[in-house]
Specification:
It is a single chain. The chain is built from 7 helices and 15 strands. The strands form 3 sheets. Strands 1-2-3-4-5-6-7 form a 7-stranded mixed sheet, covered by helices on one side. The longest helix is centred in the C-terminal third of the chain and has 15 residues. The protein is globular. The structure holds zinc ion. The site of zinc ion has 7 residues, from loops.
Length: 236
């Protein structure tokens, strides 16, 4: 996997950098690394090797959402790292257990995308507002019903999962872009995705890191343009 460093705390690991990039991230903490998402199953060994190169252990895995290109390596990583703690949002944990039912108040009719189950439930469930090390959990439903983002309170880096896409241009999930259509096609409820995009923009992130595409520095203006474009397309 391609490894790139962004600022003091963030390292991005990218599988298929030229085709359809799949990203996961290390965030440095004093007790080790938090891995955010995992890409696909065969990345597990590369992820462990990259941590070894950095010289810090992976102490926890924090999941943004239950799509298979984000949680595919969780089971294998648990085998390789028996002490690692797996963390997911309370709502999204249902998807991780193979249950795709929606709550009555959830507005769209069905889930989209390739959901992946993991063999054992997460070790810790989190709600928006809770902390995972230096990261604050931010609600960002829309791409999936229980999607969460992680906001580094030290330097305002936003790790947005698939709430935002930067491949093919900075875009809100659900706003089709030709170069990277899949995160958009597999977005569950577009008006909810736009609400979440506004919430994430309001954090005034200094850096936007996503599941598919490059890390964007000083993303506010691009995020404003993308929200306006999404509002026009979706009519929200
Ligand atoms: Zn996704």
């Amino acid at each position: 996997m391609k490894v790139t460093k962004h600022g003091q705390y963030l390292t991005m690991l990218t599988r298929y950098p030229l085709l359809g990039p799949l990203n996961c991230f290390f965030v440095r903490e004093e007790d080790g690394l938090t891995l955010i998402d995992t890409t696909i199953a065969k990345s597990a060994d590369d992820i462990v090797a990259a941590a070894r190169d950095i010289g810090q252990p992976i102490v926890r895995i924090a999941i943004t959402h239950a799509h298979d290109d984000h949680v595919g390596a969780v089971d294998r990583l648990r085998e390789l790292l028996p002490d690692v703690q797996v963390i997911a949002g309370t709502r999204e944990a249902r998807g991780l257990s193979g249950d795709q039912t929606l709550d009555p108040q959830e507005r769209a009719k069905s889930e989209k995308g390739g959901f992946a189950s993991i063999a054992r439930p997460p070790d810790r469930l989190v709600e928006p507002g809770e902390r995972v090390g230096s990261l604050e959990v931010i609600a960002s439903p829309g791409h999936t019903p229980g999607h969460i983002a992680y906001f580094d309170t030290r330097d305002r880096t936003l790790i947005a999962g698939d709430s935002w896409v930067t491949r093919g241009g900075v875009a809100v999930a659900g706003t089709m872009k030709l170069l990277m259509p899949f995160p958009h096609m597999f977005t569950w409820h577009r008006p909810t995705a736009i609400e979440s995009a506004r919430r994430l923009r309001a954090l005034n992130p200094t850096r936007l890191a996503v599941g598919h595409g490059a890390v964007i520095e000083n993303p506010s203006a691009a995020m404003d343009r993308a929200i306006a474009e999404a509002e026009k397309k979706v009519g929200a």
